[in-house]
Specification:
single chain, alpha+beta, Ribosomal Protein L30, Chain: A, three-stranded antiparallel β-sheet, 4 helices, 3 strands, about 20% strand, elongated
């Protein structure tokens, strides 16, 4: 089998373009309530979302003043896990703090 026969074998091949899509991203938001303490919200933002104290304070103030605050943007599984961690931490500390995820 020579080089010419190899070229001939591939002559009629079509090249398929594969479109690689980035995974969908989801925003994780904390929602304001009248009972969760500001200290607890900061604790959640630092512990679960790994924000600095300053950044956590900014997000906490957004939650308090605007009704919600963006904690981060993640792929689906990570966003879902972070929401579950917030729910568990809030339940353990007896606060009604809620996190939700929205498609970016």
């Amino acid at each position: 089998m020579g080089l010419n026969s190899l070229e001939h074998d591939f002559e009629n091949e079509t090249i398929e373009e594969v479109e690689v899509k980035s995974p969908k991203l989801y925003k994780v938001l904390l929602l304001n309530d009248d009972y969760s303490s500001m200290d607890f919200v900061i604790k959640v933002l630092m512990g679960i979302f790994h924000h600095s104290f300053e950044k956590a304070t900014d997000i906490m103030l957004s939650v308090h003043e605007k009704g919600s605050g963006l904690c981060g943007i993640y792929d689906y599984e990570i966003a879902e896990t972070k929401v579950a961690h917030v729910r568990k931490m809030a339940k353990n500390e007896k606060f009604p703090l809620r996190a939700i995820m929205e498609e970016e």
